[in-house]
Design brief:
This protein has helices spanning about 120-130, 145-150, 155-165, 165-185, 195-205, 215-230, 275-290, 295-300, 365-380; strands at about 1-5, 15-20, 30, 35-40, 45-50, 55-60, 65, 70-75, 80-85, 85-90, 185-195, 235-240, 245, 250-255, 255, 265, 265-270, 295, 305-310, 330, 335-340, 345-360. With about 375 residues, the protein is of the alpha+beta class. Mean pLDDT is about 80; it is low at about 85-115 and about 155-165.
Length: about 375
């Protein structure tokens, strides 16, 4: 029997509030399945399990405060049986199996007037927001209406007012950034590149595609950073216990503004291995969920380097603050037409300013300059991304 514990969801998070059990005792789960929803200062985080098994017991009631590392549930892993409430190895095939105890009864889930199953957390939220449950389609097991289903059934401004304390989110962001500036010796570099080749490649790529299929320049930015991080692993990883550890995985965190207030930078997993079309699809999905305040715990827990861009807000350069325990954040500004020197003179060309904030404990300016230069080289040849 193993205990499932509340995962760490970032350096600035110490606890959350359990708002919903998505899976119930007796149900089988696989690694990556959503088991619960925890409300934090960043929004509603979908908590994923890390192993295959069967949920044996829920250790916390909805509404409980859950510190990072606290046990949330007991999971019977493959090969275990339960006898008299105690987990033991499964017997040999030719031995008679011991009597297996019945799993704890599942909590009663209230039904809407239409007899659709509704989780308690979803019912409370529907009451708070004035949502008619008969009009909501459930996406949970057996068609159960979940908290997210209720949230999706109301306009964004009402949903945000009902779900989040944005002042708390602002305080959490401020605390994390204050810690970063206090503890991390930042150094800063910038590099302006000509980006006409990338624009032309995008235009050709998107010419025969529908708006939903088209790539945005942001996908090229993220992919170029991921590819460069593979070549410069000293910028991709974590600084902890007075030492830097490079990460084998390249999980680029993408800074996303949340509607109403706040900011999050969840990870696009294995970013360097995705082709740009798959990366764009992942980004669209991630942005839509984050702006609705929904994250998966794995997306929050393991970004290895962050990309931020305020170009669509008219900003020509953005200087990021490193999110610990990461060691680097790359910024992209607005694409701006500038005079650009070429062999035969000066022409007007589209340019973008790339910035780097990096941790001097892990790298120095020489390495940072090479890293930025490589990002520029990759964007100059977008077909190779």
């Amino acid at each position: 029997m193993s205990e499932f514990r509340m995962p760490s969801l970032g350096a600035d998070m110490e606890a959350g509030t359990l708002v919903e059990w998505v899976r119930k005792p007796g149900e089988a789960v696989k690694r990556g399945d959503i088991i619960a929803v925890v409300e934090t200062q960043k929004g509603a985080i979908e908590i994923e399990v890390f192993e295959d098994g069967i949920i044996e017991e829920e250790l916390l009631a909805v509404g409980a405060t859950v510190p990072v590392g606290a046990p949330m549930a007991r999971i019977r892993v493959e090969g275990e049986v339960v006898s008299a409430g105690v987990a033991s190895p499964a017997p040999p095939p030719d031995a008679p199996p011991p009597q297996q105890a019945s799993p704890p009864p599942s909590p009663v889930i209230a039904a809407a007037p239409s007899s659709v199953r509704v989780s308690p957390a979803a019912r409370r939220l529907a009451k708070d927001l004035g949502v008619d449950l008969a009009s909501v389609k459930g996406s949970g097991p057996g068609g159960t209406i979940t908290r997210d289903d209720v949230s999706s059934a109301v306009p964004a401004p009402v949903r945000e007012k009902g779900r989040y304390d944005f002042s708390a989110m602002r305080r959490a962001i401020a605390a994390a950034m204050a810690r970063s500036k206090r503890e991390i010796p930042h150094y800063y570099l910038s590099h302006t590149i000509e980006i006409g080749a990338a624009q032309e490649w995008l235009a050709a790529h998107n010419a025969a595609r529908t708006p939903a299929e088209r790539l945005l320049m942001g996908a090229l930015f993220v992919k170029a950073v991921a590819r460069a991080a593979r070549e410069f692993p000293e910028f991709n990883g974590f600084y902890a216990d007075n030492a830097f550890s490079a990460s084998e995985a390249i999980n680029v965190g993408v800074a996303i503004a949340i509607r109403g207030a706040g900011l999050a930078a969840p990870a696009l997993h294995d970013t360097a291995d995705l082709d740009v079309s798959a990366l764009m699809a992942r980004m669209r999905d991630l942005i839509a969920r984050v702006r609705a305040g929904r994250f998966k715990s794995s997306e929050i827990a393991d970004p290895t380097i962050t990309v931020t861009s305020l170009g669509d807000r008219g900003v020509e350069a953005v200087w990021g603050v490193i999110y610990p325990p990461q060691v680097a954040i790359v910024g992209f500004g607005r694409i701006t037409v500038r005079p650009w020197a070429i062999e035969n003179g000066i022409v007007a060309r589209p340019t973008v300013c790339i910035t780097l904030a990096a941790d001097h404990r892990a790298t120095d300016g020489h390495q940072g300059a090479l890293f930025l230069e490589r990002i520029g080289e990759l964007l100059a040849d977008p077909s190779a991304l």
